[in-house]
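Title: Prediction job returns without error message
Component: structure pipeline
Severity: low
Priority: P3
Assignee: unassigned

Description:
Job completed but the reporter wants confirmation the result is attached to the right record. Sequence as submitted:
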Amino acid sequence: MKNIFNQNDANHFIQRINTLTEDSFPKWGLMSVDKMLAHCNVTFELIYETEKHPKPTFITKWILKRFVKPKVTNELSYKQNLPTAAMFVITDNKSFEDERKRIIGFIQKTQQLGADAFEGKESFSFGKLTAQEWNNMLAKHLDHHLNQFGV
C-alpha cells in the first residue's frame, strides 16, 4: 500500500489524478469522474473542513467505530460496488477541474503535515486513529477510486 505521508507516494497519486480527464469513464459503478473526485474530497473535508458536515451522534459514532472502522482502516483493498455512506453520495454535478485541484491540494497538505501530525489525531467518525490507520484509510480510498477509473 502507498504511504500518503511519503512525498513520492503522494506524487504517485497526484500523477494518476492528473491522467484523468472530464471524459474519463468508470470501469464499474455509476459515478462520473467529477463526482468521484468530489466523493474522495469528502474524506479530506472530514479532516480539514469539518464544519461542512454534521457530526455523528454518540450512537452513530459508536456503531461506526465498532463496525466500519476496522474495514476502513485495515490494509485490505475495497471490493467493487460497496455501499456508500450518505455524506459521501454526490448527487449534483461538480466542476471536474475544481474537484481535481481540491484533491491534489488535500493530498499535498496531508503529505506535508506528515505522519506525526496524524498520530493519535481524532477522526470525525472513528475516534483517535494511528498514523498508519489514517494512511490506510486515505490511500486505500484514493487507490480504489483511481482504479475504478483505470488510472
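Comment from assignee: result matches the submitted record. The first strand starts at residue 122 and ends at 123.
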